[in-house]
Amino acid sequence: MPTYTVTQGDCISSIADQSGFFWETLWNHPGNAALKKQRQNANALQPDDVVFIPDKRRKEESCDHTKRHVFRLLGVPVTLNLRLLDHDGNARAGVPYSLDVDGKKTQGNVPADGRISQVISPKAKKAMLTLRPPGAPQEDYTFQLGYMNPVDDSKGIQGRLRNLGYYKGDITGDVDQATTDAIKDFQHDSGLEVTGEADEATKSALAQRHGG
């Protein structure tokens, strides 16, 4: 049976795209039931995870050979979703922004709910967000797309904490003092026991607030 071994930077959308499937087709296939149960989040696979790739099914259509026919290839859009909040949890509405995803640029003002959604290629690897708040310094954020490990992995914890603004360091997987302090800050803001350790309650709250 054909399989694909996940490497860093892969996500289910990019794997499905290069295999010629919708991502839901792979994720919901019985051959990937164990992986789906283990990871739960299709966008947070671990390197060395194995994704089952089913054989493509042949489909035939009857048509009049004397006429011209157009066939459309359907696709499932991949969306990059960001939510911009201040330290008090309020949406940063109205702040001018620009978003660059692998060279494709968009710009505007942050909506009232703080959410920015952009359709991107399943193969997209890097996004750069620039905020220009009036009367304040420009803010630049870089996102490595497809690099989010599961929440039960130390790199996945660091990545989520960094995206939420708690952790400023590199994603190394080493639980250093900066990581512990970030966990404590997150636990405090989430009403959890402040231990500095990523217990199950902390990981669950972190996944929920991060959106996966």
Briefly characterize the structure.
The chain is globular, with a radius of gyration of 20 Å. It is built from six helices and eight strands; from the N terminus they run E-H-H-H-E-E-E-E-E-E-E-H-H-H. With 212 residues, the chain is an alpha+beta fold.
List the main descriptive attributes of the protein structure presented here.
alpha+beta, Membrane-bound Lytic Murein Transglycosylase D, Chain A, Immunoglobulin-like, 212 residues, 6 helices, four-stranded antiparallel beta sheet, two-stranded antiparallel ribbon, Muramoyl-pentapeptide Carboxypeptidase, domain 1
Q: Could you spell the SSE succession in H and E letters?
A: EHHHEEEEEEEHHH
Helix percent reads 25-40%
Name of the CATH superfamily of the largest domain = Immunoglobulins
General form: globular
Summed over residues and divided by their number, the pLDDT gives a mean of 88
Which stretches are poorly predicted, pLDDT < 50 over at least 5 residues? none
Number of strands: 8
Oligomer: single chain
CATH fold-level topology of the largest domain? Immunoglobulin-like
Output the structural class: alpha+beta
Reported for the largest beta sheet, the result is: 4 strands, antiparallel
Provide the domain count.
3
CATH architecture of the largest domain: Sandwich
Count of helices?
6
Rg over C-alpha atoms, rounded to the nearest angstrom: 20 Å
Separation, N- and C-terminal Cα atoms: 30 Å
* Order of strands, widest sheet: 5-4-7-8
State the name of the first-level CATH class of the largest domain.
Mainly Beta
Content of β-strand = 15-25%
